[in-house]
Each structure stands twice: as C-alpha cells, then as structure tokens.
Design brief:
Layout lengths: L7 H4 L1 H4 L2 H16 L2 E2 L7 H5 L7 E5 L24 H14 L10 H5 L2 E5 L4 E2 L11 H14 L5 E5 L1 H4 L11 E5 L16 H11 L10
Parallel strand pairs: 2-3, 2-5, 5-6
Antiparallel strand pairs: 1-4
C-alpha cells in the first residue's frame, strides 16, 4: 500500500495495513481529487524516505505542512528549492545564528539536514490549501505517533525538539530516559517571542550528542 524504500517499511507495516490507514487513504483520495492539497502526493512521506530509522539523531516535530502554493514537500519547516524561506523558518535560522553562529542561508530547503540524521516530521502530513489543520484528526496522528514511538524505542542518543503546543502534546509518547526531549513555543512570528527565541535547543543538541560520543550536528545549508 505504501512503499518507503528503507527500514520504515517493516516498522510501519501494521500501521499501513490498519483500518485507520485504510480510512485515511480514502479521505485523502477524495481530498486530492476535489481540492488543492499539499504537499504533492508523492512527497507526503519524504520525512521518513529521506531519514531512515537507524540514522535518526534529531527529531524536529512540527504541526502540519505549509498551506500556501509551492512550499510544502513533506519535510517539517522546509520548503522546495527556490522558494523563499517562510517566516517560521527565518526565525529558526535566526535562533541558529544566535546560538551557534551558523550563517543564515538563502535557501529554505532543509534536505541536507535530513541526510545528516534530522527527521523533519509533522504531526499531520497533509493539508488543504489555505486551510491550516484541515487534515487534523483524520487519521494522520496514529501514523505519526507510531513513527515517534519507533524512534523513542531505538537505542542510541536521539534529541527530540517539540515546537508548539501540538508537538509538545507528543511528550507523553517519549519514555526513553536516554533521549533528550526539549519543548519550546512554535517559531511562528505569532509565538517566537514567547520563548522560541533564546530557547537554546540547537546548542543543547550539540552538547548532548558530544556527551554521548557523537560529532555535533552540522546545521549549515
């Protein structure tokens, strides 16, 4: 039914064969057939296509995809190559620059991060154009909860960055004491000044990885 092309196929086999996913797929068929929906259908699972389970070092958890034309491509907070970074991503770059001195890039495409072990996952993987959260509570949460739980069960250091209330609500799924779990307000301009700026998450991730014998993340683009 779904083919990812890496170890996620085995991990999520029961999820993709479940009644919940069958209902979700029927909903998506209707939505893609009658509305403009993002991301493009073949990009929905890019987060787990690009970052295999054994490679995950950091999980950045968002809400749902960007809902404006040409932006979303299946990675939380990332936009397609050639598209200007949206305000939330600009705020992420600003915090990275403040904490670690990482140069602020012109690109909004975060694919290089995925190749270095950053799982850029939204709690809901599709959205109708100009209708944020329109695909919430349609079945995606059971799929993404299974992804989050699979990473939590994995041995080895993983840092979870939960940004915004929807992401922070997933804190209850994370029970592995060896992992680092950090929460902050969403980087959106509406909330970034309430605690995202100055959260120190990127520096904390690098210190955590170093303390566990790994190289710090390369956050450059």
């Amino acid at each position: 039914m779904v083919y990812i092309g890496n170890s996620w196929d085995g991990v999520l086999k029961d999820v993709f064969e479940s009644e919940n996913y069958t209902k979700l797929r029927e909903f998506l068929k209707a939505e893609y057939g009658s509305h403009r929906v993002y991301p493009p259908m073949f990009d929905i699972f890019n987060a787990i296509k690009y970052t295999d389970l054994p490679d995950v070092k950091v999980v950045i958890l968002g809400q749902d995809p960007y809902h404006n034309p040409g932006q979303a491509h299946g990675l939380a907070f990332s936009v397609q190559e050639g598209v200007q970074p949206p305000p939330s991503l600009k705020n992420i770059y600003a915090e990275l620059n403040r904490e670690l001195g990482v140069a602020i890039p012109n690109t909004g495409c975060l694919v290089p991060w995925t190749k270095r072990g950053v799982l850029l996952l939204n709690t809901v993987l599709t959205v109708r154009e100009n209708s944020p959260t329109s695909h919430a509570k349609k079945g995606w949460e059971q799929v993404t909860d299974a992804i989050i739980s699979a990473v939590d069960r994995r041995e080895g250091p993983v840092a979870f960055l939960l940004w915004g209330s929807n992401a922070a609500a997933k804190r209850e799924l994370l029970t592995n004491p060896d992992h680092l779990v950090l929460t902050a307000p969403h980087p959106s301009p509406l909330s970034a000044n309430r605690g995202f700026f100055g959260c120190g998450h990127f520096l904390a991730v690098d210190r955590y990885l170093t303390a566990n014998g790994f190289e710090p993340m390369d956050w450059s683009l």
